[in-house]
Design a protein that fits this description.
22% helix, alpha+beta, five-stranded antiparallel sheet, Pyruvoyl-Dependent Histidine Decarboxylase, Chain B, five-stranded mixed sheet, 183 residues
């Protein structure tokens, strides 16, 4: 049996505007650097031992036309001045022997930092509940805002990537954020 287990992952984001919604989406993918690939959305598991690499390094490992797996958040509006966000948050156990979680969120009227924090909290909560633990981000946070303690022996590190964009009258505006897997 041939197992597909990504060894690397990178985070990316982009936005686009156009009178056509599809072209707006394409422009957001171009800004994110992932338009030349055949994108396949997958569920939200960060593989054990997977290495988070910079976007530039990850893109160099891909070939145009390649089938690429990713967790993607996308949001679009055709309303003028409407603030949209697309965000991906991740929670990875320290030591990375176990798998982690990715969470996607689309919002309206949220600041970039708020949308990012929300997706990080969501990913950490999904990981905690998988382990049978209750989770309250206000109580679990450590000295570093991106580290949560789930138990006396388990802590997770979180991070996020968020794209915000403001709608323009007469145009579609699209925001995308993605966690892109490299096999």
């Amino acid at each position: 049996m041939n197992t597909i287990l990504p060894a690397k992952m990178f985070l990316t984001k982009g936005s686009g505007q156009h009178r056509e919604k599809l072209v707006s989406f394409e422009k957001a993918l171009r800004e994110a650097g992932i338009s030349p690939f055949n994108l396949v959305k997958v569920s939200s598991i960060f593989p054990p031992g997977c290495e988070l690499v910079p976007r530039e390094k990850g893109l160099k490992l891909l070939t145009p036309g390649q089938v690429v797996f990713l967790v993607m958040s996308e949001n679009a509006t055709d309303e003028g001045h409407r603030l949209i966000s697309a965000s991906i948050g991740m929670a990875v156990p320290k030591g990375r022997r176990s798998y982690g979680y990715l969470a996607e969120h689309e919002g309206f009227g949220q600041a970039e930092m708020d949308a990012g924090r929300y997706t990080e909290d969501l990913a950490a909560e999904m990981l905690a509940t998988k382990l049978g633990r209750k989770f309250d981000p206000r109580k679990a946070g450590g000295k570093n805002g991106n580290t949560y303690r789930l138990s006396a022996t388990m802590s997770v590190t979180t991070r996020s990537i968020t794209q915000i964009a403001k709608g323009s009258q007469g145009l579609w505006t699209t925001a995308v954020a993605a966690a892109v897997f490299v096999t």
